[in-house]
Amino acid sequence: MGIFWRVLSAERLKMSKSFVWLLVIGSPAVAMLIGALANMEEEGQMITWEVLLSVMSLFHAMFFLPVLSGVFAALICRAEHADGGWKQLLALPVTRTSVYLAKYTMIMALLAAVQLLFFAAVLGVGALRGVDVPIPWTMFLASIFGGWLACMPLAALQLAISQSWSSFGAPLALNVTLTMPNMLIANSSTYGPYDPWLQPMLAMSPFGEDRFGAFNLPLESLITVVLGSLILFLAVGLFSFRRKAV
Amino acid sequence: MLVTEVKKMTQAVIETTNLLKEYRGRAAVEHLNLNIGKGEIYGFLGPNGAGKTTTIRMLLGLIKPTSGSIKIFGQDLKRNKLQILRKVGSLVESPSYYGHLSALDNLEAIRRILNVPKSRIAEVLDIVSLTGEEKRPVKGFSLGMKQRLGIAAALLGSPELLILDEPTNGLDPSGIQEIRSLIKRLPVEEGITVLVSSHLLSEIEQMAGTVGIIRSGRMVYQDTIAHLQQQAAGDLRLAVSEPEEALILANRRGCGGTLQEGRITLPRMSDVRVALLIKELVENGHAIYRVEEHRQSLEEFFLQVVEGGQSV
Ligand SMILES: Nc1ncnc2c1ncn2[C@@H]1O[C@H](COP(=O)(O)OP(=O)(O)OP(=O)(O)O)[C@@H](O)[C@H]1O
Ligand SMILES: [Mg+2]
C-alpha cells in the first residue's frame, strides 16, 4: 500500500507542469460556451436546470468524456514508452500492480477534475442566464458522479490498450473511431448499455420522462454493467501488465 | 583453492546459474554463469546482439528467464525482488526522462518512489556534475547530460549494486572519459559493485577489474583484466644473421616457429625456454640482432575471442 501512494505521488509530479491541464479545462470551457449561446427559452418559459444540464452535457458526455479517458490513458503511458521508461520505472523497488493501479488512479483523478469543472460551468452558466429555480442537487450529483463512474470501464480498457501498445497515436485513433458511432448506438436499448464509449452519456443524461433507446434503462442496471465491465477490463489490463516483458 | 572458492561464494553480489532466455525457441542467452564479487567493477562485453541487454533485463526482473536462477546479494531474485531492487540502481540502454520537467523534478519523481531524503538529490547531481543545470527542462539537455542524469537517477537510492547498460553509448570521447572516471570513482568512494556493459573492450579495460565476454548468448571468457592481458601477450620475434638455419634449429627444439619478413616468429613461451634457445643459437654461431616481443593489442585479442577464432 505504501508503494502505491509513493508511485501515485511520483505520477502526479510527472503529470504536473504539462499541458494536461489544458485538456482538463477544455471540455468544461466548450460546454460553457454552448450553454451561454444555446437557445433554450421556449415562449415565455424560464430555463430549467434540467434543460441546461442536458444541453451542456450532450457534447461533453457523448464526445469529450470518452475521448479524454483515452487521451489521459495514453498520456500516462507516453514517457514510459519513450526510451527505456518502463525499464527505469519497473527496475525500481515497486510492484507492477501498484504501478498499474497508480496510473489508473491518475486517469480517474483527472476525469474527476474534468467533471468538477463541468459542474462549476453548469452552475456558472445557470447564474449567468438567470435560472432562478432551486438547484436540484440530487439530480446534479447523480449526473456528475454517474458520468465519472461510467468512465471507469472505458478508462480501464484504454489503459490496458495504452500500456501494451508502444504507440501513442494508435490507441487514440481507435478510441476516437469507437466514440463516433455513439449517437447511433444510443438508440439501441440492446447494445447501448454495454458500449463503454456510450456509458458516460447514458449515465449523465438527467433521468427524466422522455427517455428512448438505451436511455430507457434503470440506473441500477447501468451501474451493474459498468461495475462488471470495470472489473473485467481492469483485471485483463493488470494481468497483461504484470506479464509484460520490459 | 578451497578457501578462495568459499570466500568468493559468500561475497558474490550477482550469481547466475545456467541462465537461459529463449525467444521463440531461439536462445538469446544460454548457460550463463555470472559471478560478480562485492566491490568489483565488472565489464560485461560482447558485440551487438550478444545478449548483454537481455541478461541485464533478467537481472533486474524486467523479463523472466526461460530457466536458470539468479541470486543477487545472496538472495533469490524471484522471491525477494523488492528487497533486492531497493539496493540496485540501473540504467538500461537509453536514459528515460520527462522532457517537460527539469532535472530536479525528474529526480524528485524517482525520489518519491525510493523514499530517500530530499538532500540526496543535490548529492547525486553533484556526483555527476549537473549542479547548476538542475532547473532546466531536460529536453534541452545534450546527450551526455541526459546520460549523466540517468546515472544520477541510478545513484539516487544509494545502491550497493549499480547496473549500467552501455552508459557511454553515443557519447563523444570526452563524454566517454567523463563517464569512465565517474564510474571508476564509485566503488572506492561508495563501496558499491558495478556491472557495466559495452561492446568495446577499450572502453572497459581502464576501469573494470574483471571482464565477462559474451558471444551469441554464451559466456566465452570470464576472468580478471590482468589475466586477459597475459593471454593477449604475443609472439617472440627474432632477427638473426641466418634466419633459415636458425629456424630449423629452433623448430628442432619444438618451438613451432615460422619465418615472416625475414624474421623468426615464435609463439609465446616461458622465460627459461627463451633463454635456452638464445644460448643455443649463439653457441651455433648465429649473430642475434634483435629479440622483440610482439604484443597483440587487447582489442585484437578481444576480437579474436568474439569472432570465435580463439577458444578460451
Ligand atoms: N523481444 C525479443 N524478441 C526476440 N528476440 C529478441 C528479443 N530481445 C532480444 N532478442 C534477441 O536476443 C539477442 C540478444 O539481444 P540483446 O539486446 O540482449 O543484445 P545486446 O548484447 O544487448 O546487443 P547490443 O550491443 O546491440 O545492445 C539478439 O539476437 C536479439 O535479436
Ligand atoms: Mg544492448
UniProtKB/TrEMBL annotation, chain A:
The chain crosses the membrane at residues 20-38, 58-79, 100-125, 137-160, 172-194, 221-241. Keywords: Membrane, Transmembrane, Transmembrane helix. It comes from Paenibacillus jilunlii. Coiled coil: none annotated. This is ABC-2 type transport system permease protein. The keyword Isomerase does not apply. The keyword Transmembrane applies. CDD domains: ABC-2_lan_permease-like.
Automatic annotation (TrEMBL), chain B:
Keywords: ATP-binding, Nucleotide-binding, Transport. InterPro entries: AAA+_ATPase, ABC_transporter-like_ATP-bd, ABC_transporter-like_CS, P-loop_NTPase. Residues 14-241 form the ABC transporter domain. It holds the Pfam family ABC_tran. Signal peptide: none annotated. GO terms for molecular function: ATP binding; ATP hydrolysis activity. Belongs to the ABC transporter superfamily. This is ABC-2 type transport system ATP-binding protein. It comes from Paenibacillus jilunlii.
